[in-house]
Design brief:
Layout (H helix, E strand, L loop, with lengths): L1 E8 L3 H12 L4 E5 L6 H5 L5 E2 L8 E2 H12 L5 E4 L3 E9 L3 E8 L4 E9 L5 E4 L29 E5 L3 H10 L5 E5 L9 H12 L3 E4 L2 E9 L2 E9 L4 E5 L2 E4 L3 E4 L10 E2 L2 E3 L12 E3 L4 E2 L7 H19 L10 H4 L10
Parallel strand pairs: 1-2, 1-8, 2-5, 8-20, 10-11, 10-16, 11-12, 19-21
Antiparallel strand pairs: 3-4, 6-7, 7-8, 9-17, 13-14, 14-15, 18-19
Helix pairs in contact: 1-3, 1-6, 4-5
């Protein structure tokens, strides 16, 4: 059994920044994530996708953001348990220490901590797949639910299906490498950021992208897993065939909190309700930050998750060091562990 101050569940961007914030509060962290690499969706799904709303970075690829966040957390020497999942969480009484949380993973790791911070994003995630006959025969080869490397689509014809941010953002991003892009959506209006929708329409007007609306996917044709044609149909049943090397369906992710759903936390559908001023759940000592957390007027933005991480760390410090008076300092004054560039 290993004792630590904080167990962080989830090593995505918000989980990594939580390590930093806890480290600034002099709290040691162990981090558990089901994936084999840190970074969550940023690493697993879209490492080359540019992100535009990270303060100080007009544009940064998701993979580079994760690299920077891991480096930022490294002075605090977190212990990572990757490719593993939390199996059970139990509250135990410890003499002279009140209570602690006992965390056990699927691989048998046992951790005892005063604080648990859940930064699990959307939990265990998977794509919502379109109900097309034999789609599984094309999956992995020419039907991709996530974009890992843009160069895969160099000089290829692509059908992108969906009307949200992922569909619109990838259509814009891949327009610079693909030979032809069709965007199929069952409505003429898109549910993406207004500026992105404007860019999409501008690319359509320029002939770079073709908007196929209002249409929806009907069937796939090809051989040995290689796609050749995507058939679509409009609301009147009129069919159209689109020649394509790849189909990218973006219909969102299905969420599954897994064992977290059985911990007695206040849930709102697949999200965990928290106090917006501290990110603490209804269980003292358990916090939730990032996309998994919810409260009135919650915004699912990485930068909001960063703010929640700071709030959680400051509140957690009161529980880890209840007898110590804390004097708030900015990082420009306090520096970080191992930093030789501290300023007064």
């Amino acid at each position: 059994m290993t004792k630590t101050d904080v167990v962080i569940i989830g090593a995505g961007p918000v989980g990594l920044f939580t390590i930093f914030e806890c480290g600034m509060m002099k709290m040691k962290c162990h981090v558990i994530d089901a994936l084999e690499e840190v970074g969550g969706q940023c690493t697993a799904l879209y490492p080359e996708k540019p992100i535009y709303d990270i303060p100080g970075f007009p544009s940064i690829d998701a993979g580079d953001l994760i690299k920077n966040l891991k480096e930022q957390a490294s002075p605090f020497k977190p212990t990572y348990h990757l490719g593993d999942q939390v199996k059970t969480v139990q509250k135990i009484e410890v003499p002279k220490d009140g209570y602690r949380w006992m965390v056990m993973t699927e691989k048998g790791v046992e951790l005892q901590a005063k604080i648990i911070i859940i930064a699990a994003g959307v939990g265990a995630f998977g794509p919502n797949k379109p109900p097309l006959e034999n789609i599984e025969t094309f999956e992995e080869k020419s039907v991709h639910y996530f974009v890992r490397w843009r160069e895969t689509y160099q000089d290829k014809s692509i059908v992108i299906a969906g009307g949200g941010d992922s569909a619109v953002d990838w259509a814009i991003s891949l327009a610079t490498v693909a030979k032809k892009i069709y965007v199929v959506h069952r409505r003429s209006k898109f549910r993406a950021a207004p500026d992105s929708v404007d860019k999409l329409h501008a690319l359509h007007d320029a002939g770079t992208i073709e908007l196929v609306t209002p249409y929806q996917l009907a069937s796939l044709e090809g051989n040995s897993g290689q796609l050749e044609t995507v058939k679509v149909v409009d609301m009147d049943g009129q069919e159209r065939s689109l020649e394509a090397d790849y189909l990218l369906p973006f219909f969102g992710l299905s969420m599954n909190l897994g064992p977290i759903a059985t911990w007695g936390l206040n849930l709102d559908k697949s999200h965990i309700s928290v106090d917006p001023t501290t990110a603490q759940t209804n269980e003292e000592g358990i916090f939730a930050v990032g996309d998994v957390a919810t409260y009135d007027n919650k915004l699912k933005l990485i930068l909001c998750g960063f703010s929640e991480a700071a709030q959680a760390a400051h509140k957690a410090r009161e529980l880890v060091y209840p007898d110590e008076v804390f004097h708030f300092e900015y990082s420009t004054t306090s520096g970080v562990v191992g930093d030789s560039k501290k300023t007064a």
